[in-house]
Amino acid sequence: QVQLMESGGGLVQVGGSLRLSCAASASFSLINTLGWYRQAPGKQRELVARITSGRNPNYADSVKGRFTISTDGAKNTIYLQMNSLKSEDTAVYYCYAKIVGDSEYNYWGQGTQVTVSS
Predict the structure, then answer these.
(1) Residue whose C-alpha is closest to residue 20's, from 75, 72, 82, 90
(2) 42 phi and psi angles, rounded to 5 deg
């Protein structure tokens, strides 16, 4: 079982920046994929960015060049730096972890609200 705890959401103006953090209860050496998803009102949850072991990060087209995903293995923490925020970035952001062993296990944080106002 992996617990994920997000923080850093809030209210920001268009063009501003926020950094989200997600602390995991397990070592990153056990986790295959870490990432961020988001869900806006009335829309499906969508991938924002993710990192898979041994691979480069990948991003949704809508955030490329503005968002950066990173990890700190010593702190078991994943970050999402969000710059040049747009109103359409308003959503609940969820941290995600996947462990692949004898089966695939998916874990989600409780979510943190990001609101971008114009």
Answers:
(1) 82
(2) 75, 5
- Tokens representing 60 are 């949704």
Do residues 72 and 21 make contact, with C-beta atoms less than 8 angstroms apart? no
Cβ neighbours, 10 Å, residue 66: 15
| 7 close to 20: Cβ distance less than 8 angstroms | yes
Written as tens digits, the pLDDT of the chain (118 aa) is 899 999 999 999 999 999 999 999 988 888 999 999 999 999 999 999 999 988 899 999 999 999 999 999 999 999 999 999 999 999 999 999 999 988 999 999 999 999 999 8
Integer distance in angstroms from the first to the last C-alpha of the chain? 40
List, in sequence order, every residue forming a beta bridge with 51; answer none if it has no partner. Answer: 34
**Contact (CB, 8 A) for 1 and 105:** no
